[in-house]
Amino acid sequence: MNQPLNQILQVIEKISELRSWRKSLKGTVGFVPTMGALHSGHAELLNQMKKNCDHRVLSIFVNPTQFGPNEDLSKYPRTFQKDLEIAKNCGVEVVFFPSAEEMYPASYSTFVEENTLSQPLCGRFRPGHFRGVTTIVLKLLNSVQPHKAFFGLKDAQQFFVLKKMLEDLNLDIEMIGVPTVREKDGLALSSRNVYLSPEERQKAPEIFKTLTLASEKIKKQLSLDPILTEARQQLEAHGFIVQYLEALSLPYLQPLNTTSNPLPAHDKTLLAIAVFLGKTRLIDNLIF
Ligand code: AMP
Question: Does the annotation mark 42 as catalytic?
Fold first, then answer.
């Protein structure tokens, strides 16, 4: 089914060229969208795609519309040659690598918004972020036209927002969520980890430790607010600035303790966190 790994990896920069290639394909087409600076977390998505799809596309595009004015767009890490090596080793056939002008020509004027799941958590602190994400992902899905698209649960809110967009807009694409890949000490792999100083890197595993401890307590049905307050205080004592630490129900990201709302039945909880460690913003979560 899959092609040998020594295949020639094609880099395609134009949507029109991607479309012609796509038209020539038979069999399942898989897609992994990324912003590059690939690490083992991305590689896991690519490996899942390799296992499940006859044809495999990776996109690398640092999407300007999902960055706020004071965020790290210009210094976002770019490691294209290394990314190509990883892509090749993980069985990717085509790397779609469009320019900003290709995706957003000067006349560009259409955006896609999900208006419910994108409101809490990161939505509160990064206005416009998910609007940028839904817009670019829809554009990429329309360009690639995959049968299956692979996303990391490291960005859990993004995953559920996109899933809702696909449902609402009737896209016939299977979304596959891949569990978070972590360093041995528990730190979730992220392209932004390179910003951490050695001292910050040493502290960073506290995020996962704290989430794990809090999740154990929540599973025991102890009262939610004191658990979250204590967890937050512990991180702050280690020098983290905690932007949010919240437990919400899945798949609709509703507050857990809301009783007045007729919530859809949920069987899973998302415990999600965003912190600043120095100037670096890190997110993580557990689903249980
Ligand atoms: P990014 O390049 O950061 O936009 O991420 C591209 C895709 O890789 C997204 O679906 C992310 O959720 C996923 N991803 C990033 N880090 C990890 C990780 N540590 N484990 C699993 N997936 C990840």
Answer: yes
